[in-house]
Amino acid sequence: MTREETVKGAARRIEHYRAQGYACSEASIRALADLFDCPLPQDVIKAAGVFAGGAAVDGRCGIGESALIFVAYLFGGKAGAHRLPERARRVQREMENALGSIMCSDLFYPLYEEHRSKGEPEEAFHCVFDSGIVCVAGTIHDMIYET
After folding, report:
1. Which of 59, 65, 88, 134 pairs as cysteine with 51 (C-beta 3.0–4.6 A)?
2. Strands, E, within 18-144: which ranges?
């Protein structure tokens, strides 16, 4: 699969899960698992849900946080553990470069207020689902084909 096919597929998959009512973090890890044909255990997928809405603690974007879980699942273990911090920083750096921040409050709230001020219904608001998943899926694609 080319990088372009990967990012287009990621946008379609996350929208599929968003439309089913999944929050950003769970929708993104489900989309990544589908896209990269990586059957994650349901407990891992459900656990990613804690990162929705900035995890209510540290405020980082749930799409980026669930991507870190996915990267650890793909590349972790004894053989790859030494490179996990580098890969995690890369996901975060690429997301920050593409979107301007990795913080939910910087990404979600300004867009939410913009949509709300236009009178758009909340269910029509997508936050950074598309741009966030495109960024992390492209980065993960590059990691896979570099190894």
Report:
1. 65
2. none
Helix 84-99, helix 129-146: angle, nearest 10: 140
How much is the pLDDT for 115? 76
Tokens 């966030």: give the residue: 132
Q: For residues 39 and 112, what is the distance between their CA atoms, to the nearest angstrom?
A: 33
Dist CA 66 CA 125 (whole Å)? 20
- 126 Cβ contact list (under 8 Å, min separation 6): 15, 18
Dist. CA 13–CA 19, nearest whole Å: 10
Q: What is the predicted pLDDT for the residue at 28?
A: 94
> What is the block-wise mean pLDDT of the chain (147 residues), using blocks of 10 residues?
93 91 92 96 92 75 92 88 92 94 83 80 69 93 89
Kindly report the length of the chain. Answer: 147
Contacts of 19 (CB under 8 A, 6+ apart): none
